[in-house]
Specification:
The protein is of the alpha/beta class and about 140 residues long. It has five helices and five strands.
Length: about 140
């Protein structure tokens, strides 16, 4: 199912970039740029998201085997260069992906963005309800 999603200045340079480092788990594929801090934290990031996924699936009492792709950027400027938006964290519905800025000060991990994607199974909620649901979990 494809949804219209407006993201100002959105671009897909991240899909064309060939030098991503990659970590894959049972339910995620994490792409990150060579950065010592992210490289050191990638296992923690993976564990955090796997635990968040369990919480989301338990909340909805559903199964979901589709892997979520995570693109992890070291700062807002780099994220903006790769995908056109510098917001710390956002899910992209049609790519079943999450894009985050992750560094010593900014660590937007947990269930919020994943909830947006996993709950698509029930249809696309209006912004008000989608954010409320993601905050609830």
């Amino acid at each position: 199912m494809r949804y219209n999603q407006f993201i100002e200045n959105y671009k897909e340079y991240y899909k064309k970039y060939k030098k991503w480092s990659k970590k894959e788990t049972d339910h995620y594929v994490f792409y990150y740029l060579e950065n010592n801090f992210i490289k050191k934290e990638i296992n923690k990031i993976a564990r955090t998201q796997e635990n968040a996924r369990k919480k989301i699936l338990s909340f909805f009492n559903i199964k979901n085997s589709k892997k979520i792709k995570y693109y992890i950027y070291p700062d807002e400027h780099t994220k903006s260069d790769f995908m056109g938006n510098s917001v710390y964290a956002q899910s992209i519905y049609n790519d079943y992906s999450v894009h985050i800025v992750y560094n010593k000060k900014i660590k937007p991990l947990g269930a919020h963005e994943d909830t947006h994607l996993i709950s698509l199974k029930f249809g696309l909620a209006t912004s008000f309800f989608a954010e409320g649901l993601a905050e609830c979990i």
